[in-house]
Design goal:
Layout: H1 2-8, E1 61-66, E2 73-74, E3 80-84, H2 87-90, H3 100-107, E4 123-127, E5 136-139, H4 158-181, E6 187-190, H5 191-204, E7 206-212, H6 226-237, E8 242-246, H7 253-257, H8 263-279, E9 288-293, H9 298-311, E10 317-326, H10 338-358, E11 363-373, H11 386-399, E12 404-408, H12 427-438, E13 439-443, E14 446-450, E15 465-472, E16 484-490, E17 496-500, E18 509-516, E19 527-529, E20 532-533, E21 548-550, E22 556-558, E23 562-568
Parallel strand pairs: 1-17, 3-4, 3-12, 4-7, 5-6, 7-8, 8-9, 9-10, 10-11, 11-12
Antiparallel strand pairs: 1-14, 2-13, 13-15, 15-16, 16-23, 17-22, 18-19, 18-21, 18-23, 19-20
Length: 579
Protein backbone atom coordinates (compact mmCIF):
# COMPACT_ATOMS: atom_id res chain seq x y z
CA UNK A 1 0.00 0.00 0.00
CA UNK A 2 2.88 2.42 0.62
CA UNK A 3 3.90 1.92 -2.96
CA UNK A 4 0.37 2.54 -4.06
CA UNK A 5 0.07 5.65 -1.93
CA UNK A 6 3.23 7.03 -3.47
CA UNK A 7 1.50 6.92 -6.81
CA UNK A 8 -1.60 8.54 -5.41
CA UNK A 9 0.44 11.58 -4.45
CA UNK A 10 0.19 12.85 -7.95
CA UNK A 11 -3.31 11.54 -8.44
CA UNK A 12 -6.50 13.41 -9.25
CA UNK A 13 -9.34 14.35 -6.96
CA UNK A 14 -11.79 11.51 -7.17
CA UNK A 15 -15.51 12.14 -6.76
CA UNK A 16 -17.45 10.33 -4.09
CA UNK A 17 -18.06 7.65 -6.67
CA UNK A 18 -15.14 7.02 -8.98
CA UNK A 19 -15.43 4.96 -12.14
CA UNK A 20 -16.70 1.46 -11.40
CA UNK A 21 -14.77 -1.74 -11.38
CA UNK A 22 -11.36 -0.21 -11.09
CA UNK A 23 -9.09 0.28 -8.21
CA UNK A 24 -6.95 2.46 -10.33
CA UNK A 25 -4.13 4.72 -9.33
CA UNK A 26 -4.15 7.67 -11.59
CA UNK A 27 -1.61 10.37 -11.98
CA UNK A 28 -2.22 13.77 -13.36
CA UNK A 29 -0.21 14.08 -16.49
CA UNK A 30 0.23 15.93 -19.76
CA UNK A 31 2.21 14.24 -22.39
CA UNK A 32 3.04 14.75 -26.01
CA UNK A 33 5.16 12.46 -28.08
CA UNK A 34 7.53 14.20 -30.42
CA UNK A 35 9.34 12.76 -33.41
CA UNK A 36 11.67 14.57 -35.69
CA UNK A 37 9.03 14.78 -38.39
CA UNK A 38 7.86 18.33 -37.75
CA UNK A 39 4.55 18.08 -39.69
CA UNK A 40 3.40 15.40 -37.22
CA UNK A 41 3.69 17.71 -34.22
CA UNK A 42 0.71 19.33 -32.55
CA UNK A 43 0.54 23.07 -32.00
CA UNK A 44 2.82 25.76 -33.38
CA UNK A 45 5.17 24.25 -35.98
CA UNK A 46 7.48 27.19 -36.62
CA UNK A 47 10.98 25.92 -37.34
CA UNK A 48 13.64 26.78 -34.83
CA UNK A 49 16.88 28.36 -36.00
CA UNK A 50 19.60 25.72 -36.09
CA UNK A 51 23.10 26.74 -35.08
CA UNK A 52 26.06 24.40 -34.91
CA UNK A 53 28.01 24.93 -31.71
CA UNK A 54 31.76 24.55 -32.14
CA UNK A 55 32.91 20.96 -31.96
CA UNK A 56 29.41 19.45 -32.24
CA UNK A 57 28.28 17.72 -35.41
CA UNK A 58 25.04 19.24 -36.60
CA UNK A 59 23.20 16.01 -37.13
CA UNK A 60 23.85 14.89 -33.55
CA UNK A 61 22.45 18.04 -31.89
CA UNK A 62 18.72 18.39 -31.38
CA UNK A 63 17.14 21.74 -30.54
CA UNK A 64 14.04 21.42 -28.37
CA UNK A 65 11.42 24.00 -27.42
CA UNK A 66 7.94 23.71 -25.89
CA UNK A 67 4.82 25.78 -26.54
CA UNK A 68 4.22 27.22 -23.07
CA UNK A 69 1.20 29.39 -23.90
CA UNK A 70 -1.56 26.78 -23.80
CA UNK A 71 -1.91 22.99 -23.45
CA UNK A 72 -2.92 20.81 -26.39
CA UNK A 73 -4.66 18.30 -24.08
CA UNK A 74 -5.88 18.18 -20.50
CA UNK A 75 -6.28 14.67 -19.14
CA UNK A 76 -7.58 13.30 -15.86
CA UNK A 77 -5.51 13.82 -12.74
CA UNK A 78 -6.13 10.10 -12.19
CA UNK A 79 -4.50 9.38 -15.55
CA UNK A 80 -2.23 6.60 -14.30
CA UNK A 81 -4.23 3.93 -12.49
CA UNK A 82 -3.73 0.37 -11.33
CA UNK A 83 -5.45 -3.01 -11.67
CA UNK A 84 -5.44 -6.15 -9.56
CA UNK A 85 -5.84 -9.54 -11.19
CA UNK A 86 -8.53 -12.05 -10.08
CA UNK A 87 -5.76 -14.59 -9.57
CA UNK A 88 -5.06 -13.06 -6.14
CA UNK A 89 -8.13 -14.96 -4.90
CA UNK A 90 -7.04 -18.22 -6.50
CA UNK A 91 -3.44 -18.12 -5.34
CA UNK A 92 -4.00 -16.75 -1.84
CA UNK A 93 -2.37 -13.30 -2.08
CA UNK A 94 -5.65 -11.63 -1.16
CA UNK A 95 -4.99 -12.54 2.49
CA UNK A 96 -1.68 -10.68 2.41
CA UNK A 97 -2.77 -7.37 0.88
CA UNK A 98 -3.04 -5.68 4.28
CA UNK A 99 0.55 -6.21 5.32
CA UNK A 100 2.62 -3.08 5.74
CA UNK A 101 4.72 -3.55 2.59
CA UNK A 102 1.71 -3.65 0.28
CA UNK A 103 -0.01 -0.75 2.02
CA UNK A 104 3.16 1.33 1.69
CA UNK A 105 3.60 0.39 -1.96
CA UNK A 106 -0.01 1.34 -2.62
CA UNK A 107 0.36 4.65 -0.86
CA UNK A 108 3.35 5.38 -3.07
CA UNK A 109 0.84 6.20 -5.78
CA UNK A 110 -0.78 8.70 -3.41
CA UNK A 111 2.24 10.63 -2.23
CA UNK A 112 3.89 11.65 1.01
CA UNK A 113 0.92 13.49 2.48
CA UNK A 114 -2.32 11.61 2.95
CA UNK A 115 -4.08 14.84 3.90
CA UNK A 116 -3.68 15.89 0.29
CA UNK A 117 -5.49 12.87 -1.09
CA UNK A 118 -8.14 11.95 1.43
CA UNK A 119 -11.00 12.41 1.18
CA UNK A 120 -11.04 14.96 -1.65
CA UNK A 121 -8.13 13.62 -3.68
CA UNK A 122 -8.62 9.87 -3.67
CA UNK A 123 -6.99 7.98 -6.52
CA UNK A 124 -8.78 5.17 -8.27
CA UNK A 125 -7.46 1.62 -8.22
CA UNK A 126 -9.08 -0.75 -10.63
CA UNK A 127 -9.67 -4.25 -9.39
CA UNK A 128 -11.46 -6.41 -11.90
CA UNK A 129 -12.43 -9.45 -9.89
CA UNK A 130 -15.67 -10.35 -11.59
CA UNK A 131 -14.19 -10.61 -15.03
CA UNK A 132 -13.12 -12.98 -17.74
CA UNK A 133 -11.95 -15.68 -17.50
CA UNK A 134 -13.60 -16.41 -14.15
CA UNK A 135 -17.25 -16.87 -13.27
CA UNK A 136 -17.42 -15.35 -9.80
CA UNK A 137 -20.06 -15.65 -7.12
CA UNK A 138 -20.61 -13.43 -4.09
CA UNK A 139 -21.27 -15.41 -0.93
CA UNK A 140 -22.21 -14.01 2.48
CA UNK A 141 -19.88 -14.71 5.36
CA UNK A 142 -20.71 -14.63 9.04
CA UNK A 143 -17.15 -13.63 9.80
CA UNK A 144 -17.06 -10.62 7.47
CA UNK A 145 -14.96 -7.74 8.77
CA UNK A 146 -17.92 -5.62 9.88
CA UNK A 147 -17.61 -1.93 10.80
CA UNK A 148 -13.89 -1.82 10.37
CA UNK A 149 -12.48 1.46 11.66
CA UNK A 150 -9.35 3.01 10.21
CA UNK A 151 -6.48 1.27 8.50
CA UNK A 152 -5.71 -2.16 9.95
CA UNK A 153 -2.24 -3.52 9.20
CA UNK A 154 -1.92 -7.31 9.25
CA UNK A 155 1.14 -9.10 10.59
CA UNK A 156 2.27 -12.42 9.08
CA UNK A 157 5.26 -14.52 10.23
CA UNK A 158 7.99 -15.11 7.64
CA UNK A 159 7.12 -18.81 7.50
CA UNK A 160 3.59 -17.96 6.39
CA UNK A 161 4.92 -15.75 3.62
CA UNK A 162 7.25 -18.52 2.43
CA UNK A 163 4.38 -21.03 2.39
CA UNK A 164 2.25 -18.53 0.48
CA UNK A 165 4.96 -18.07 -2.16
CA UNK A 166 5.11 -21.85 -2.64
CA UNK A 167 1.33 -22.02 -2.95
CA UNK A 168 1.30 -19.15 -5.44
CA UNK A 169 3.99 -20.84 -7.58
CA UNK A 170 1.93 -24.04 -7.76
CA UNK A 171 -1.24 -22.12 -8.58
CA UNK A 172 0.62 -20.22 -11.31
CA UNK A 173 1.15 -23.53 -13.13
CA UNK A 174 -2.54 -24.42 -12.73
CA UNK A 175 -3.68 -21.05 -14.11
CA UNK A 176 -1.30 -21.32 -17.07
CA UNK A 177 -2.66 -24.78 -17.87
CA UNK A 178 -6.23 -23.42 -17.77
CA UNK A 179 -5.24 -20.55 -20.01
CA UNK A 180 -3.56 -22.70 -22.65
CA UNK A 181 -6.37 -25.29 -22.64
CA UNK A 182 -9.04 -22.55 -22.61
CA UNK A 183 -10.94 -24.31 -19.82
CA UNK A 184 -11.45 -22.32 -16.65
CA UNK A 185 -12.63 -23.19 -13.17
CA UNK A 186 -15.20 -21.09 -11.35
CA UNK A 187 -14.15 -18.71 -8.63
CA UNK A 188 -16.15 -17.87 -5.53
CA UNK A 189 -15.73 -14.50 -3.89
CA UNK A 190 -16.97 -14.35 -0.31
CA UNK A 191 -18.17 -11.26 1.54
CA UNK A 192 -15.04 -11.52 3.64
CA UNK A 193 -12.92 -11.39 0.49
CA UNK A 194 -14.73 -8.27 -0.64
CA UNK A 195 -14.14 -6.74 2.79
CA UNK A 196 -10.41 -7.42 2.47
CA UNK A 197 -10.27 -5.88 -0.96
CA UNK A 198 -12.10 -2.77 0.11
CA UNK A 199 -9.96 -2.45 3.22
CA UNK A 200 -6.82 -2.61 1.10
CA UNK A 201 -8.12 0.07 -1.25
CA UNK A 202 -9.36 2.30 1.53
CA UNK A 203 -6.18 1.87 3.56
CA UNK A 204 -4.08 2.76 0.52
CA UNK A 205 -6.16 5.82 -0.28
CA UNK A 206 -7.57 4.29 -3.48
CA UNK A 207 -11.02 4.11 -5.01
CA UNK A 208 -12.30 0.64 -5.93
CA UNK A 209 -13.80 -0.10 -9.34
CA UNK A 210 -15.41 -3.51 -9.41
CA UNK A 211 -16.17 -5.55 -12.54
CA UNK A 212 -19.30 -7.65 -12.06
CA UNK A 213 -19.71 -11.09 -13.60
CA UNK A 214 -21.35 -10.84 -17.04
CA UNK A 215 -21.10 -14.58 -17.78
CA UNK A 216 -24.29 -15.45 -15.88
CA UNK A 217 -26.91 -15.62 -18.65
CA UNK A 218 -30.63 -16.33 -18.89
CA UNK A 219 -31.97 -18.80 -21.50
CA UNK A 220 -32.67 -15.85 -23.86
CA UNK A 221 -29.02 -14.75 -23.49
CA UNK A 222 -29.85 -11.67 -21.43
CA UNK A 223 -27.79 -10.96 -18.33
CA UNK A 224 -28.88 -12.68 -15.11
CA UNK A 225 -28.46 -9.93 -12.54
CA UNK A 226 -29.58 -11.81 -9.41
CA UNK A 227 -26.03 -12.49 -8.22
CA UNK A 228 -24.92 -8.93 -8.92
CA UNK A 229 -27.90 -7.57 -6.98
CA UNK A 230 -26.82 -9.57 -3.92
CA UNK A 231 -23.34 -8.06 -4.14
CA UNK A 232 -24.71 -4.53 -4.62
CA UNK A 233 -26.98 -4.85 -1.58
CA UNK A 234 -24.16 -6.21 0.56
CA UNK A 235 -21.77 -3.44 -0.50
CA UNK A 236 -24.44 -0.83 0.12
CA UNK A 237 -25.09 -2.21 3.61
CA UNK A 238 -21.39 -1.65 4.37
CA UNK A 239 -21.53 1.81 2.73
CA UNK A 240 -18.66 0.90 0.42
CA UNK A 241 -17.85 3.64 -2.08
CA UNK A 242 -17.40 1.60 -5.26
CA UNK A 243 -17.72 2.23 -8.99
CA UNK A 244 -18.85 -0.54 -11.32
CA UNK A 245 -18.28 -2.39 -14.56
CA UNK A 246 -19.86 -5.45 -16.18
CA UNK A 247 -17.63 -8.16 -17.58
CA UNK A 248 -14.28 -8.17 -19.32
CA UNK A 249 -13.45 -8.72 -22.99
CA UNK A 250 -17.06 -9.61 -23.90
CA UNK A 251 -16.00 -10.17 -27.51
CA UNK A 252 -14.37 -13.45 -26.32
CA UNK A 253 -17.37 -14.96 -24.53
CA UNK A 254 -17.99 -17.61 -27.18
CA UNK A 255 -14.78 -19.38 -26.21
CA UNK A 256 -15.77 -19.27 -22.52
CA UNK A 257 -19.44 -20.13 -22.31
CA UNK A 258 -20.16 -21.48 -25.78
CA UNK A 259 -22.39 -18.57 -26.72
CA UNK A 260 -21.57 -15.12 -27.96
CA UNK A 261 -22.91 -11.81 -26.68
CA UNK A 262 -23.11 -9.10 -29.31
CA UNK A 263 -22.64 -5.40 -28.68
CA UNK A 264 -26.34 -4.59 -28.71
CA UNK A 265 -27.10 -7.24 -26.10
CA UNK A 266 -24.28 -6.10 -23.84
CA UNK A 267 -25.61 -2.55 -24.24
CA UNK A 268 -28.98 -3.75 -22.93
CA UNK A 269 -27.20 -5.48 -20.04
CA UNK A 270 -25.45 -2.23 -19.12
CA UNK A 271 -28.74 -0.36 -19.27
CA UNK A 272 -30.14 -2.97 -16.90
CA UNK A 273 -27.19 -2.51 -14.53
CA UNK A 274 -27.61 1.26 -14.57
CA UNK A 275 -31.26 0.77 -13.55
CA UNK A 276 -30.19 -1.52 -10.69
CA UNK A 277 -27.72 1.07 -9.43
CA UNK A 278 -30.37 3.77 -9.45
CA UNK A 279 -32.61 1.61 -7.27
CA UNK A 280 -29.95 1.48 -4.52
CA UNK A 281 -29.49 4.83 -2.80
CA UNK A 282 -25.79 4.28 -2.10
CA UNK A 283 -25.09 3.74 -5.80
CA UNK A 284 -27.72 5.91 -7.47
CA UNK A 285 -24.94 8.21 -8.67
CA UNK A 286 -22.16 5.66 -8.91
CA UNK A 287 -19.94 5.68 -11.99
CA UNK A 288 -20.31 2.93 -14.56
CA UNK A 289 -17.65 2.00 -17.14
CA UNK A 290 -17.49 -0.34 -20.11
CA UNK A 291 -17.59 -2.35 -22.31
CA UNK A 292 -13.88 -3.21 -21.74
CA UNK A 293 -13.44 -4.83 -25.15
CA UNK A 294 -10.24 -6.33 -26.52
CA UNK A 295 -8.05 -4.91 -29.29
CA UNK A 296 -10.19 -3.10 -31.88
CA UNK A 297 -9.96 -5.49 -34.79
CA UNK A 298 -12.77 -5.45 -37.36
CA UNK A 299 -15.22 -7.65 -35.43
CA UNK A 300 -14.45 -5.86 -32.16
CA UNK A 301 -15.07 -2.45 -33.74
CA UNK A 302 -18.48 -3.72 -34.92
CA UNK A 303 -19.13 -4.95 -31.35
CA UNK A 304 -18.33 -1.50 -29.96
CA UNK A 305 -20.62 0.18 -32.50
CA UNK A 306 -23.52 -2.04 -31.41
CA UNK A 307 -22.80 -1.29 -27.76
CA UNK A 308 -22.55 2.48 -28.24
CA UNK A 309 -25.87 2.61 -30.12
CA UNK A 310 -27.67 1.13 -27.11
CA UNK A 311 -25.64 2.11 -24.03
CA UNK A 312 -23.35 4.97 -25.05
CA UNK A 313 -25.21 7.29 -22.71
CA UNK A 314 -25.27 4.80 -19.81
CA UNK A 315 -21.51 4.66 -19.23
CA UNK A 316 -19.31 7.42 -17.81
CA UNK A 317 -16.33 6.36 -19.92
CA UNK A 318 -15.72 3.87 -22.73
CA UNK A 319 -13.06 1.24 -21.96
CA UNK A 320 -10.89 -1.13 -23.93
CA UNK A 321 -7.72 -3.23 -23.44
CA UNK A 322 -4.38 -3.58 -25.18
CA UNK A 323 -1.50 -6.04 -24.87
CA UNK A 324 1.42 -5.56 -27.23
CA UNK A 325 2.94 -9.01 -27.78
CA UNK A 326 2.48 -12.66 -26.85
CA UNK A 327 4.49 -13.15 -23.68
CA UNK A 328 5.24 -16.77 -24.63
CA UNK A 329 7.39 -15.80 -27.62
CA UNK A 330 8.69 -12.34 -26.64
CA UNK A 331 12.38 -11.41 -26.99
CA UNK A 332 14.20 -8.44 -25.51
CA UNK A 333 14.66 -6.93 -28.98
CA UNK A 334 10.86 -6.80 -29.35
CA UNK A 335 10.69 -4.07 -26.72
CA UNK A 336 13.01 -1.88 -28.81
CA UNK A 337 11.04 -2.05 -32.09
CA UNK A 338 9.58 1.32 -33.04
CA UNK A 339 6.91 -0.34 -35.18
CA UNK A 340 5.63 -2.13 -32.07
CA UNK A 341 5.63 1.11 -30.09
CA UNK A 342 3.51 2.73 -32.80
CA UNK A 343 0.79 0.05 -32.98
CA UNK A 344 -1.20 1.69 -30.18
CA UNK A 345 -1.77 4.95 -32.11
CA UNK A 346 -3.89 3.25 -34.76
CA UNK A 347 -5.99 1.50 -32.12
CA UNK A 348 -6.64 4.78 -30.33
CA UNK A 349 -7.91 6.35 -33.55
CA UNK A 350 -10.26 3.42 -34.20
CA UNK A 351 -11.80 3.64 -30.73
CA UNK A 352 -12.09 7.42 -30.89
CA UNK A 353 -13.82 7.27 -34.28
CA UNK A 354 -16.59 5.00 -32.97
CA UNK A 355 -17.04 6.84 -29.66
CA UNK A 356 -17.18 10.28 -31.28
CA UNK A 357 -19.72 9.03 -33.83
CA UNK A 358 -22.26 8.07 -31.15
CA UNK A 359 -21.31 10.12 -28.06
CA UNK A 360 -19.01 13.01 -29.02
CA UNK A 361 -16.80 14.09 -26.13
CA UNK A 362 -17.26 10.89 -24.11
CA UNK A 363 -14.19 10.03 -22.03
CA UNK A 364 -12.13 7.03 -23.14
CA UNK A 365 -10.06 4.79 -20.86
CA UNK A 366 -7.47 2.18 -21.73
CA UNK A 367 -8.51 -0.10 -18.90
CA UNK A 368 -6.15 -2.99 -18.91
CA UNK A 369 -2.77 -2.60 -20.59
CA UNK A 370 0.27 -4.82 -20.33
CA UNK A 371 3.46 -5.14 -22.27
CA UNK A 372 2.82 -8.83 -22.97
CA UNK A 373 -0.18 -11.17 -22.93
CA UNK A 374 -0.38 -14.73 -21.58
CA UNK A 375 1.01 -13.70 -18.21
CA UNK A 376 4.25 -12.32 -19.62
CA UNK A 377 7.72 -13.82 -19.49
CA UNK A 378 10.22 -13.87 -16.64
CA UNK A 379 13.16 -11.46 -17.05
CA UNK A 380 11.39 -9.71 -19.94
CA UNK A 381 7.96 -8.26 -19.15
CA UNK A 382 9.10 -7.61 -15.57
CA UNK A 383 12.49 -6.16 -16.59
CA UNK A 384 13.94 -2.76 -17.43
CA UNK A 385 13.42 -3.42 -21.15
CA UNK A 386 9.63 -3.47 -20.76
CA UNK A 387 9.78 0.14 -19.57
CA UNK A 388 10.32 1.45 -23.10
CA UNK A 389 6.89 0.20 -24.15
CA UNK A 390 5.29 1.33 -20.89
CA UNK A 391 6.61 4.90 -20.89
CA UNK A 392 5.83 5.30 -24.58
CA UNK A 393 2.31 4.04 -23.89
CA UNK A 394 1.78 6.77 -21.29
CA UNK A 395 3.03 9.42 -23.69
CA UNK A 396 0.95 8.26 -26.63
CA UNK A 397 -2.26 7.95 -24.63
CA UNK A 398 -1.96 11.38 -23.04
CA UNK A 399 -0.98 13.10 -26.29
CA UNK A 400 -3.97 11.58 -28.08
CA UNK A 401 -6.47 12.49 -25.38
CA UNK A 402 -7.12 9.19 -23.59
CA UNK A 403 -8.34 10.21 -20.14
CA UNK A 404 -7.17 7.29 -17.98
CA UNK A 405 -4.87 4.29 -18.37
CA UNK A 406 -5.15 1.32 -15.99
CA UNK A 407 -2.00 -0.76 -15.71
CA UNK A 408 -2.33 -4.52 -15.41
CA UNK A 409 -1.32 -5.45 -12.80
CA UNK A 410 -0.09 -4.45 -9.33
CA UNK A 411 0.35 -8.10 -8.35
CA UNK A 412 -0.62 -11.25 -10.23
CA UNK A 413 0.51 -14.78 -11.01
CA UNK A 414 2.45 -13.86 -14.15
CA UNK A 415 5.24 -11.44 -14.98
CA UNK A 416 3.39 -8.26 -15.98
CA UNK A 417 3.13 -7.01 -12.42
CA UNK A 418 4.70 -3.97 -10.78
CA UNK A 419 5.63 -5.67 -7.49
CA UNK A 420 7.13 -9.15 -7.13
CA UNK A 421 6.18 -11.77 -4.55
CA UNK A 422 8.92 -10.61 -2.20
CA UNK A 423 7.20 -7.18 -2.21
CA UNK A 424 10.07 -5.62 -4.15
CA UNK A 425 9.11 -2.90 -6.66
CA UNK A 426 10.04 -3.81 -10.23
CA UNK A 427 11.37 -1.35 -12.86
CA UNK A 428 7.92 -0.34 -14.13
CA UNK A 429 6.87 0.53 -10.58
CA UNK A 430 9.73 3.01 -10.22
CA UNK A 431 9.02 4.38 -13.69
CA UNK A 432 5.35 4.84 -12.81
CA UNK A 433 6.20 6.39 -9.46
CA UNK A 434 8.41 9.01 -11.12
CA UNK A 435 5.66 9.68 -13.64
CA UNK A 436 3.10 10.29 -10.94
CA UNK A 437 5.43 12.47 -8.91
CA UNK A 438 6.53 14.69 -11.80
CA UNK A 439 3.78 14.75 -14.45
CA UNK A 440 0.74 17.03 -14.41
CA UNK A 441 -2.49 16.76 -16.45
CA UNK A 442 -1.69 19.37 -19.12
CA UNK A 443 -0.10 18.13 -22.34
CA UNK A 444 2.23 20.53 -24.11
CA UNK A 445 3.30 20.72 -27.76
CA UNK A 446 6.95 20.15 -28.57
CA UNK A 447 9.00 21.74 -31.35
CA UNK A 448 12.11 19.91 -32.52
CA UNK A 449 14.76 20.95 -35.04
CA UNK A 450 18.10 19.46 -36.01
CA UNK A 451 20.22 18.20 -38.88
CA UNK A 452 19.68 14.58 -39.84
CA UNK A 453 20.62 12.24 -42.61
CA UNK A 454 18.27 12.40 -45.57
CA UNK A 455 15.91 9.39 -45.63
CA UNK A 456 16.34 6.94 -48.48
CA UNK A 457 13.59 7.14 -51.13
CA UNK A 458 10.69 4.81 -50.33
CA UNK A 459 12.03 3.91 -46.89
CA UNK A 460 9.96 4.65 -43.79
CA UNK A 461 12.07 6.18 -41.04
CA UNK A 462 10.63 5.63 -37.57
CA UNK A 463 12.21 7.71 -34.87
CA UNK A 464 13.97 6.06 -31.96
CA UNK A 465 14.13 9.21 -29.85
CA UNK A 466 10.73 10.01 -28.32
CA UNK A 467 10.07 13.17 -26.35
CA UNK A 468 6.99 14.16 -24.38
CA UNK A 469 6.26 17.37 -22.45
CA UNK A 470 3.96 18.12 -19.52
CA UNK A 471 3.33 20.80 -16.98
CA UNK A 472 5.03 19.61 -13.81
CA UNK A 473 2.62 18.17 -11.25
CA UNK A 474 0.99 20.83 -9.08
CA UNK A 475 1.19 18.41 -6.15
CA UNK A 476 4.99 18.25 -6.24
CA UNK A 477 6.01 20.97 -3.82
CA UNK A 478 9.67 20.78 -4.87
CA UNK A 479 8.83 22.80 -7.98
CA UNK A 480 6.97 26.08 -8.36
CA UNK A 481 4.02 26.33 -10.69
CA UNK A 482 5.02 27.14 -14.23
CA UNK A 483 7.74 24.45 -14.36
CA UNK A 484 7.79 21.93 -17.21
CA UNK A 485 8.71 18.23 -17.21
CA UNK A 486 10.12 16.44 -20.25
CA UNK A 487 10.46 12.70 -20.49
CA UNK A 488 12.60 11.08 -23.10
CA UNK A 489 13.01 7.56 -24.47
CA UNK A 490 16.27 6.88 -26.31
CA UNK A 491 16.13 3.62 -28.26
CA UNK A 492 19.34 4.41 -30.15
CA UNK A 493 22.48 2.49 -29.31
CA UNK A 494 24.33 5.79 -29.11
CA UNK A 495 23.92 8.82 -26.90
CA UNK A 496 21.91 11.80 -28.11
CA UNK A 497 22.41 15.48 -27.32
CA UNK A 498 19.53 17.88 -26.80
CA UNK A 499 19.88 21.65 -26.49
CA UNK A 500 16.96 23.43 -24.83
CA UNK A 501 15.89 26.49 -26.82
CA UNK A 502 13.32 29.27 -26.78
CA UNK A 503 11.48 29.55 -23.47
CA UNK A 504 13.56 26.67 -22.03
CA UNK A 505 16.94 28.26 -22.79
CA UNK A 506 19.33 28.90 -19.89
CA UNK A 507 17.06 27.36 -17.24
CA UNK A 508 18.17 25.13 -14.40
CA UNK A 509 17.21 21.51 -15.07
CA UNK A 510 16.73 18.59 -12.67
CA UNK A 511 17.61 15.23 -14.19
CA UNK A 512 15.98 11.90 -13.23
CA UNK A 513 17.86 9.30 -15.30
CA UNK A 514 16.67 5.68 -15.00
CA UNK A 515 19.11 2.96 -16.02
CA UNK A 516 19.29 -0.79 -15.39
CA UNK A 517 21.25 -1.79 -12.30
CA UNK A 518 23.48 -4.84 -12.18
CA UNK A 519 25.09 -7.16 -14.70
CA UNK A 520 21.83 -8.22 -16.40
CA UNK A 521 21.52 -5.05 -18.47
CA UNK A 522 18.13 -4.66 -20.16
CA UNK A 523 17.00 -7.91 -18.48
CA UNK A 524 17.59 -6.42 -15.04
CA UNK A 525 14.77 -6.29 -12.49
CA UNK A 526 16.52 -3.49 -10.61
CA UNK A 527 17.07 0.11 -11.63
CA UNK A 528 19.28 3.01 -10.62
CA UNK A 529 18.28 6.67 -10.49
CA UNK A 530 21.12 9.02 -11.43
CA UNK A 531 23.55 6.23 -10.59
CA UNK A 532 22.01 5.25 -7.23
CA UNK A 533 20.16 1.89 -6.91
CA UNK A 534 16.47 2.19 -6.03
CA UNK A 535 15.04 -0.05 -3.31
CA UNK A 536 12.68 0.16 -0.35
CA UNK A 537 14.45 1.59 2.70
CA UNK A 538 12.50 -0.86 4.88
CA UNK A 539 9.07 -2.52 4.81
CA UNK A 540 7.34 0.80 5.27
CA UNK A 541 9.46 3.43 3.57
CA UNK A 542 10.02 4.40 -0.05
CA UNK A 543 13.40 5.96 -0.86
CA UNK A 544 13.75 9.63 -1.67
CA UNK A 545 13.79 10.19 -5.43
CA UNK A 546 16.67 12.64 -5.66
CA UNK A 547 17.30 14.59 -8.87
CA UNK A 548 20.66 15.55 -10.30
CA UNK A 549 20.77 19.34 -10.82
CA UNK A 550 22.23 20.47 -14.17
CA UNK A 551 23.63 23.93 -14.61
CA UNK A 552 21.65 26.46 -16.64
CA UNK A 553 22.21 26.16 -20.38
CA UNK A 554 23.85 22.75 -20.24
CA UNK A 555 23.22 20.40 -23.16
CA UNK A 556 21.22 17.31 -22.16
CA UNK A 557 23.15 14.14 -22.94
CA UNK A 558 20.82 11.14 -23.22
CA UNK A 559 22.64 7.80 -22.79
CA UNK A 560 21.78 4.95 -25.18
CA UNK A 561 18.82 2.68 -24.39
CA UNK A 562 17.58 4.73 -21.43
CA UNK A 563 14.52 6.53 -20.09
CA UNK A 564 14.74 9.87 -18.33
CA UNK A 565 12.73 12.77 -16.90
CA UNK A 566 13.89 16.40 -16.91
CA UNK A 567 12.20 19.11 -14.88
CA UNK A 568 12.90 22.54 -16.36
CA UNK A 569 12.58 24.87 -13.38
CA UNK A 570 11.16 28.37 -13.18
CA UNK A 571 10.00 28.56 -16.78
CA UNK A 572 6.91 30.46 -15.59
CA UNK A 573 4.96 28.82 -18.41
CA UNK A 574 1.57 30.46 -18.84
CA UNK A 575 -0.06 27.07 -19.55
CA UNK A 576 1.23 25.72 -16.24
CA UNK A 577 0.64 28.55 -13.77
CA UNK A 578 -2.96 27.70 -12.99
CA UNK A 579 -4.85 24.45 -12.47
Amino acid sequence: SELIRGFLLSGMPCPSSCPPGLLALMAPGLALMATFSLPSQAGDRRALPVEKPPGVKGRTLILLDVNTKSPVRIISENFLSLQLDPSIIHDGWLDFLRILSFIKLGRGWVGPSLTQCLPKRRECLAISLFSFPFAVDIVRSDIALDKQKGCKIAQHPDIMLELQREKAAQMHLVLLKEQFSNTYSNLTLTARSLDKLYNFADCSGLHLIFALNALRRNPNNSWNSSNALSLLKYSASKKYNISWELGNEPNNYRTLIGRSVNGSQLGKDYTQLRSLLQLIRTYSRAHLYGPNIGRPRKNVVAFLEGFMKVAGGAVDAVTWQHYYIDGRVAKVTDFLKTRLLDTLSDQIRKIQKVVNTYTPGKKIWLEGVGMTSSGGMNNLSDSYAAGFLWLNTLGLLASQGIDVVVRHSFLDHGHNHLVDQNFNPLPDYWLSLLYKRLIGPKVLAIHVAGLQRKPRPGRVIRDKLRIYAHCTSYHNHNYVRGSITLYIINLHRSRKKIKLAGTLRDKIVHQYLLQPYGKDGLHSKSVQLNGQPLAMVDDGTLPELKPRPLRAGRTLVIPPLTMSFYVVKNVNALACRYR
